[in-house]
Amino acid sequence: MNNEAKSTQHVKKAILMCTCSFACPSMKDINFGELSERIRLELPHDYMLLHPRLCEENGENLLADLLKDNVLYVTPACKEEKQKKLLRDGFEKAGVKMDNNWKPVSISFKNTETAFNDIKKALEEV
Amino acid sequence: MAGRDYMGIPREEIPWYPTINADLCNSCGSCLDFCSNNVFAQGELHMEVANPYNCVVGCSACANECETGALSFPSKEELVKKLHELRDKYKTTV
Hints:
The complex is a heterodimer. In chain A, helix 2 (32-42) links the parallel strand 1 (12-18) and strand 2 (47-51). Chain A has helices spanning 3-7, 32-42, 57-66, 80-86, 88-94, 98-101, 112-125, and strands spanning 12-18, 47-51, 71-77, 102-106. Chain A is α/β, with parallel strands linked by helices. In chain A, helix 3 (57-66) packs parallel to helix 5 (88-94). The longest helix of chain A has 14 residues, at 112-125. By secondary structure, chain B is of the alpha+beta class. Chain B has helices at residues 30-34, 61-65, 76-90; strands at 5-6, 9-10, 19-20, 40-42, 47-49, 71-72. Chain B has a two-stranded antiparallel sheet. A two-stranded antiparallel sheet of chain B has the order 3-6. In chain B, strand 4 (40-42) and strand 5 form a beta hairpin. Chain B is elongated, with a radius of gyration of 14 Å. Chain B starts with a strand and ends with a helix. The interface between A and B is medium-sized, with 17 and 14 residues.
């Protein structure tokens, strides 16, 4: 995130978790039910959603309707560099700049505990 | 990664994975770099699908990374039809 982003006054923090159809081998060690419930109970954020595939049309349509300028979106999903490509269209459709409003977290090849801790760290950094 | 299920259906029963058009593939390796699941491997003449059932069912994101358009997948309609057949076979509730 750049300096401009850090200076942006975000009203809310939202977590948009992409589960890759609950079928990605790289996420086989994550229990998404447990992870999302632990996040909901333990981490400071305003709201969270899980979507099976934010990078495809269904997910992009959601992002187009959902994203707002005054919210910072933390996205636990695949590798950060992949997310940048795969979520770009959704942010563009919404007219929201990724540089200002987006913090990716890779949960690829993580288990539930390490994914939780990485999401916690990301929330603390923003 | 064998032995995984998708909606209660053994993954190996679901014919969802990329097909490489060897005439179009220039062996750039972008698919290999992009996919985290070791679906692709660098072959002698062109890229190869080394682990087809590591491919996430319904995912075709790697095709967008291929500049020559060498990667293709079944259509979504074909996938849904096949999943219906397999659902009946395995009597899953999804």
